[in-house]
Amino acid sequence: MKLATFNVNGVNGRLPVLLRWLEDAKPDVVCLQELKAPQERFPVDALEEAGYGAIWHGQKSWNGVALLAKGAVPHELRRGLPGDPNDVQSRYIEGVVGGVIVGCIYLPNGNPAPGPKFDYKLRWFDRLKSYASDLLSDDLPAVLAGDFNVMPTDLDVYKPERWRDDALFRPEVRDAYAELVAQGWTDCLRTLHPGERIYTFWDYFRNAYWRDAGLRIDHLLAAPALHNQVRDAGVDKHVRGWEKASDHAPVWIQLAD
């Protein structure tokens, strides 16, 4: 199973890019973030024509997450994290594909920090850690994938000294990510490529992509039940260079059958 995550930065505006990548990469499962589309505007027909079934949680203008599966419709388990019934932002959807539980995540950005948006990010992270711990308690084959909006270490950011006070790199956020992984999750990309400088996001400004001035903020975390099944992991960096591309590139892992 090839499982990928891709922050599309507007699923309708970037639909040609998404369809081109699906045809080229042929992933079996895809987590999408930042749909920027209400529920009724999700391009389900175009994706079905491309061979992918979908479940999605849309939101007008902002946020939005979806889960795609090649040749099937994922069996939906949950939309939205537990712990805050008043949270209406579309940032989590979970389903089962091929016997694997897949949680698609779009974690809050949190800027400016400090401030209310940063506080919301930390509360959301706390809810994620609590729910992720519950997933592990049953020793289920699960993957949490998406845009976590955190660079875990200095290795994951171009010129880390410039990001010390940013909500994606503040100690509280990096600590929260480290605590999540310490539950037993495997950061697949980093585990298979230790010490390598790999990015998944390049800003549109200052020629960032062509200078390779990037960030690693898109992650795939595998539960212990899948730890020995992870065969490969990578970033389709070239997609970021396509015309009208997202500022993120697809990130993927290959699981043994």
UniProtKB/TrEMBL annotation:
Its cofactor is Mg(2+). SUPFAM superfamilies: DNase I-like. It is an enzyme of class 3 (hydrolase). Residues 4-248 form the Endonuclease/exonuclease/phosphatase domain. Pfam families: Exo_endo_phos (PF03372). Its EC number is 3.1.11.2. Transmembrane segments: none annotated. InterPro entries: AP_endonuc_1, AP_endonuclease_F1_BS, Endo/exonu/phosph_ase_sf, Endo/exonuclease/phosphatase, ExoIII-like. Keywords: Hydrolase, Magnesium, Metal-binding. GO terms for molecular function: double-stranded DNA 3'-5' DNA exonuclease activity. It comes from the Bacteria. Gene3D superfamilies: Endonuclease/exonuclease/phosphatase (3.60.10.10). The keyword Transcription does not apply. Belongs to the DNA repair enzymes AP/ExoA family. This is Exodeoxyribonuclease III. The gene is xth.
